[in-house]
């Protein structure tokens, strides 16, 4: 496949969105083509060449001008606006070392925050967070973050009511069994295949489309309860029921009320496998608050017809039904509630633990979920022990920076924010992932020093004092094994890193020497030594399970290895169903907790002891009239979050360079907005430009702006208007509830108008101004 005479090389690579084949000519990436054995490869690979070789690459260590001139305590210049000065690696790492030592000796390791949330890149060894954490652990530790932006409410709630949420994903009922035994799939938030392109850590083959096609062929019927029709592929031939965003808990309650009043509840299931149903039933009947949660009531909250809520409940009771609830529903105000109500509804139907029945959460969030599993675990770069115990729930980053020392509540605990003087981010983009970016900008002015390791000049890098340019996956050697995938994919280095970008491992080795840490971080090994060590660990582990793996060198120069999936007919909670005393759940009662004394005992008015209806905050807010449109900000089809937004595929879908925003024809007409117009999206938190896509695929009253357009604030415009279309200038930074403190990005409200001024140029795809110290 290589042609040395024309200097053409092809190498295999891997990413969170799948394997690919890199073609280089003369040391430059020409393309990343689909991997031949992947039945539905992702087009996200088409972004790689332009993005990694683009004008936004960080090429040399860069220091913010005000910081370099006057040092960490001077507060000269404003992060996000300042220029940068390029310096040598030696100078940059001296600054990093001095600053680490200063902060540690003045304030202790508790003043170093390295929560550093983000997806980084695939690769078992060069994992940005793992590397940073191991290094800082050797330095005495740092404050970490707990949870994620994906399904934080589930991570915290589920252990109280069913058991570990990770097991929900790992042991999810397989689509194979749905095709065999299921009749009906009711999807809250759909099953968007655009999201199932991605699996954390990597994917060998994209299987979900075929699995779902098999279900359709077997006669399984799909119902898409989502404001966006595109959350169900056409081939599913799903009935579309578009609710008002944030109303799913009410819909589920309307269904549950129907089951209750029509004698359709499986009482023997509830008796044997659950506790607390009486509290739920009493709430559904309206005993505590005088409001029965019947289908008519649910129709008022959701905009769905009451009759369809009733008939669907009957259909669900009459046949084998799987309820799928998208992770999106819990990334919203009171996001714990749709989860708890999903469990309650599925329990009332009594099909939990039966093939093709029960419930699943976050099915299309992961390419592999319900499709495949790995027979053995993969090795990881060991992080060592963190001597610092302090952590924050991940989505409290702005609160932590703005309110050091302040008390807050979380999952039954009284907590206190640490005082973070030094923030180090590697492998994440908070100016992509966090809500209310104007507030985050304020918060990012607070620390004394911010260090960011980045491939590109993201908005986060532009808010740092010290920016360390790092190598991207194609520029280093590694191997890929997805969190739940059964493929091992070699990742031989395809090209060298541009400019002075370096592997993070080598940066930490250098710092280890400067700081006199001995070999605590590196153990005196090179990155290739580590890779060989990790691979031989894997070989030994595999052998114990009767799997033979080739030696490292043969693997690295070879092809993808697919291991056997030994769990093909998994049915979630089938063990528990068959023998509840032998396989109790990890809950206080050992059963499904439809009401939880533990949660009730926390006394949280925003998350009481049983599933409870709360309208989203904005419904009751004084600005409800002013900002009448619900804003959904789901995942982008053309990229992974903000990664590679300056690549060809991502750019190909922009509207005049802006992120597309979907709007219903009625809403567009009422505002004199035409398809292709540049619009301004506004609320009390901020504003951005976007490109109107007028479509009847979205419910009236709802607009949809995907995440991931690189934040590009125009400081000369009102509210530092984002020129590009990043929805997080419009989302609030209030969390789900005190229980999970999860992000609630899907609960935003906005108004939209045609943008009549001249449309400014996008600047974030160029590097910031680089200057010399005069
Ligand atoms: N409004 C709204 N906001 C959301 C969501 C939503 O639904 N709506 N979804 C949320 C969810 S589910 C998530 S998971 C988050 C995702 O948020 P993030 O994971 O922070 O987003 P990414 O764009 O993947 O950021 C990864 C960054 O790491 C960099 N990177 C890649 N590889 C490496 C490496 O090897 N080393 C270093 N140092 N850097 C590297 C990339 O250039 C990129 O800037 O966003 C959340 N934000
Ligand atoms: N291509 C691509 N795929 C990805 C990612 C990516 O960045 N790019 N990110 C990955 C990550 S980290 C994660 S966590 C997952 C996230 O997976 P999800 O959480 O499922 O993703 P979202 O796109 O936020 O939401 C899915 C759909 O839910 C619908 N929805 C939103 N709010 C409501 C509501 O209140 N009610 C109902 N019924 N529906 C609602 C929206 O129409 C949206 O399209 O995706 C993963 N997959
Ligand atoms: Mo996520």
From TrEMBL:
Q: Where is the Molybdopterin oxidoreductase N-terminal domain?
A: 13-51
Q: Which InterPro entries match?
A: Asp_de-COase-like_dom_sf, CT_DMSOR/BSOR/TMAOR, Molybdopterin_N, MoPterin_dinucl-bd_dom, Mopterin_OxRdtase, Mopterin_OxRdtase_prok_CS, Prok_Mopterin_Oxidored
Name the UniProt key words of this record, in alphabetical order: Metal-binding, Molybdenum, Oxidoreductase, Periplasm
Q: Name one GO molecular function term.
A: oxidoreductase activity
Q: Name one GO cellular component term.
A: outer membrane-bounded periplasmic space
**Cofactor(s) needed for function:** Mo-bis(molybdopterin guanine dinucleotide)
Where does the record place the Molybdopterin dinucleotide-binding domain? 629-747
Q: Specify the superkingdom.
A: Bacteria
Q: Which residues form the Molybdopterin oxidoreductase domain?
A: 57-513
Q: Name one GO biological process term.
A: anaerobic respiration
Which family, according to the similarity comment?
A: Belongs to the prokaryotic molybdopterin-containing oxidoreductase family.
Report the protein name in the record. Biotin sulfoxide reductase
């Amino acid at each position: 496949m290589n042609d040395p005479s024309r200097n053409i090389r092809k190498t295999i690579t891997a990413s969170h969105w799948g394997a690919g084949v890199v073609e280089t000519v003369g040391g430059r990436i020409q393309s990343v083509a689909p991997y031949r054995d992947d039945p539905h490869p992702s087009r996200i690979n088409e972004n790689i060449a332009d993005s990694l070789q683009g004008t936004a690459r960080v090429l040399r260590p860069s220091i913010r001008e005000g910081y370099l001139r006057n040092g960490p305590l001077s507060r000269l210049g404003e992060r996000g606006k300042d220029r940068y000065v390029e310096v040598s690696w030696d100078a940059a790492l001296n600054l990093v070392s001095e600053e680490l030592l200063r902060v540690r000796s003045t304030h202790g390791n508790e003043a170093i925050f390295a929560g550093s949330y983000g997806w980084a890149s695939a690769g078992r060894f060069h994992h940005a967070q793992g590397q940073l954490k191991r290094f800082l652990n050797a330095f005495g530790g740092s404050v970490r973050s707990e949870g994620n932006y994906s399904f934080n409410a589930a991570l915290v709630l589920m252990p109280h009511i069913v058991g570990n949420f990770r097991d929900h994903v790992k042991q999810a009922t397989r689509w194979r069994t749905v095709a065999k035994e299921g009749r009906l799939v009711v999807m809250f938030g759909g099953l968007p295949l655009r999201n199932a392109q991605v699996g954390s850590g990597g994917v060998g083959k994209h299987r979900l489309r075929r699995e779902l096609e098999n279900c359709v062929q077997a006669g399984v019927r799909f119902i898409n309860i989502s404001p966006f029709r595109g959350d169900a592929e056409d081939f599913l031939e799903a009935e579309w029921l578009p609710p008002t965003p944030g109303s799913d808990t009410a819909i589920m309650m309307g269904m549950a009320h129907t089951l209750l009043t029509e004698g359709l509840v499986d009482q023997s299931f509830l008796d044997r496998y659950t506790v607390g149903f009486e509290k739920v039933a009493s709430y559904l009947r309206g005993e505590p608050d005088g409001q029965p949660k019947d289908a008519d009531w649910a129709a008022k909250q959701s905009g769905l017809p009451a009759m369809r809520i009733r008939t669907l409940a009957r259909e669900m009771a009459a046949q084998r039904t799987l309820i799928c609830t998208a992770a999106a529903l819990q990334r919203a105000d009171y996001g714990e509630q749709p989860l708890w109500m999903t469990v309650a509804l599925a329990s009332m139907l009594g099909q939990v633990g039966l093939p093709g029945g029960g419930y699943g959460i976050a099915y299309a969030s992961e390419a592999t979920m319900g499709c495949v599993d790995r027979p053995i675990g993969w090795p990881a770069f060991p992080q060592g022990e963190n001597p610092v115990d302090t952590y924050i729930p991940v989505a409290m980053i702005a609160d932590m920076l703005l309110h050091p020392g302040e008390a807050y509540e979380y999952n039954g605990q009284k907590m206190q924010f640490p005082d973070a003087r030094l923030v180090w981010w590697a492998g994440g983009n908070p100016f992509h992932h966090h809500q209310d970016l104007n507030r985050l900008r304020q918060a990012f002015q607070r620390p004394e020093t911010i260090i960011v390791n980045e491939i590109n000049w993201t908005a986060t890098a532009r808010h740092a004092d010290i920016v360390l340019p790092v190598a991207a996956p194609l520029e280093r050697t590694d191997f890929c094994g997805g969190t739940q995938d059964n493929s091992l994919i070699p990742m031989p280095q395809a090209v060298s890193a541009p400019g002075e970008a370096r592997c993070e491992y080598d940066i930490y080795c250098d710092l280890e020497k400067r700081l006199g840490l001995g070999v605590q971080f590196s153990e005196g090994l090179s990155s290739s030594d580590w890779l060989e060590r990790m691979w031989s660990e894997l070989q030994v582990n595999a052998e114990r399970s009767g799997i033979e793996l080739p030696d490292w060198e043969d693997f690295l120069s070879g092809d993808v290895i697919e291991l056997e999936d030994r769990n093909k007919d998994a049915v979630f909670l089938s063990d528990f169903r068959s023998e509840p005393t032998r396989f109790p759940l990890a809950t206080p009662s050992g059963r499904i907790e439809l009401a939880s004394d533990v949660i009730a005992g926390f006394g949280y008015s925003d998350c009481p002891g049983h599933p409870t209806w709360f309208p989203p905050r904005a419904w009751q807010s004084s600005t409800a009239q002013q900002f009448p449109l619900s804003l959904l900000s789901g995942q982008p089809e053309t990229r992974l979050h903000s990664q590679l937004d300056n690549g060809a595929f991502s750019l190909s879908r922009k509207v005049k360079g802006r992120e597309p925003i979907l709007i219903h024809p009625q809403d567009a007409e009422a505002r004199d907005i035409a398809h292709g117009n540049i619009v301004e999206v506004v609320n009390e938190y901020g504003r951005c430009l976007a490109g109107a896509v007028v479509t009847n695929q979205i419910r009236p009253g709802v607009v949809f702006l995907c995440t991931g357009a690189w934040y590009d604030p125009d400081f000369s415009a009102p509210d530092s208007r984002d020129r590009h279309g990043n929805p997080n200038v419009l989302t609030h930074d209030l969390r789900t509830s005190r229980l999970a403190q999860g992000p609630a990005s899907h609960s935003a409200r906005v108004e939209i108008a045609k943008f009549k001024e001249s449309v400014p140029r996008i600047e974030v795809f160029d590097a910031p101004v680089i200057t010399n110290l005069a």
